[in-house]
Amino acid sequence: EVQLVESGGGLVQVGGSLTLSCAVSGFTVDDHAVGWFRQAPGKEREGVASICHIIVDATSYADSVKGRFTISRDKNTVHLKIVNLKPEDTAIYYCAALSGPILTLKEELYPYWGQGTQVTISS
């Protein structure tokens, strides 16, 4: 059974940093792509970062988060480090997975999803 469990969310001050983690089971990250998505209050869910393994790890980021978000993996855990946090980063963050080395931020392509972790940025 494929499972993804996010952790690391919480209340953080503007300008701070945090690292979200996505622990996966039921498959190996080497064979799948993993993406991070977020949904802010009143907004649609958006993809922010993805990673897959094609000989080496390949990554992709939404333009809105480039330079502040870093996706990485450690065995079967995928991390999302966020620095210089802004109020607009407040959202529920989800990780998702799809089979194959497909680097994409299109959520409709991801069949497996975690439950999400809340990130709240205080000013």
Short structural description:
By secondary structure, the chain is mostly beta strands. 0% of the residues lie in helices and 56% in strands.
Query: Helix and strand string, N-terminal first?
Result: EEEEEEEEEEE
For the residues shown, what is the average pLDDT?
95
List the uncertain runs.
none
Structural class: mainly beta
According to DSSP, the number of beta strands is 11
Described by the principal axes of the CA atoms, the overall outline is globular
Biggest sheet record = 7 strands, mixed
Helix content: under 10%
Radius of gyration: 13 Å
N→C terminal distance? 40 Å
The fraction of residues in strands falls at over 45%
Number of helices: 0
Mind sketching the topology for me?
Elements: E1 3-7, E2 10-13, E3 18-25, E4 32-39, E5 46-54, E6 56-61, E7 69-74, E8 77-82, E9 91-99, E10 112-113, E11 117-122
Summarize this structure as a short list of keywords or feature phrases.
mainly beta; 4-stranded antiparallel sheet; 11 strands; globular
Question: Can you characterise this structure?
Answer:
Strands 2, 4, 5, 6, 9, 10 and 11 form a seven-stranded mixed beta sheet that branches. The chain has a four-stranded antiparallel beta sheet with strand order 1-3-8-7, with no helix packed on it. It has 123 residues and is mainly beta. The chain is globular and about 40 Å long. A hairpin with a 2-residue loop joins strand 7 and strand 8. It is built from no helices and eleven strands. Helices cover 0% and strands 56% of the residues.
